[in-house]
Amino acid sequence: MSSTSPSKPASPSLHRPRTLAERPLDILYLAYFGIHLLASLAIDAQLTYPPYSQTLFPEPLRNVLRDYLESSKDPFLLAAERASAEHVWFRVLLASETLFQIPCFAVAIWGLIHDEKRTYPLMVCYGTLAASSTLQCICSVLFGADGHSLTKAQIAGLLQNYVPFCIIPTLLTLDMMLRIVGLLAPSTAAGKVEGKDE
């Protein structure tokens, strides 16, 4: 006569979404996406396609962009402003920021607030694009012609802006990839057990 032990009920913590307090890295990502969303909508979108879209923005925001360009001499945003043929690649990045990344920010913020795992792949895609494109800008300033006309103080200021926007997306990409692998691992193990039982 076989005896069966009663199955233990699943722990509620396995099913309930974790609070933000339990996810310190997600708090960092949430702050990053929030800041980037505001900057993209208020500043970067002024220099994206269609051309001359700055006229659609309030004067205070146009003044913020103008003051930043005058103080930082950001070679990429200045090139986008004058529609430089040598920086078409950066204008394409600005367009992708408006058309692809801004929606990603909104979805990622929603996913992080609700601990929604279905947004992990999207954040991997975003992080890969953001980290690689920002690294390209950093290398162009440090080792390319874009940094030749800049002072050391201006280069340091640009790096203060660029480096965090390269490091955090890199961390985000690696973290989300590991989370996805962790979610897939139990299913793979279960499949192997089922294969042995057949």
TrEMBL record:
Lipid bilayer topology: Multi-pass membrane protein
Subcellular localization, as worded in the UniProt entry: Endoplasmic reticulum membrane
GO CC terms: endoplasmic reticulum membrane
Domain EXPERA: 25-173
Pfam families: EBP
Secretion signal, residue range per the UniProt entry: none
Keywords linked to the UniProt accession: Endoplasmic reticulum, Membrane, Transmembrane, Transmembrane helix
Family: Belongs to the TMEM97/sigma-2 receptor family.
Name under which the protein is recorded: EXPERA domain-containing protein
Organism: Sporisorium reilianum f. sp. reilianum
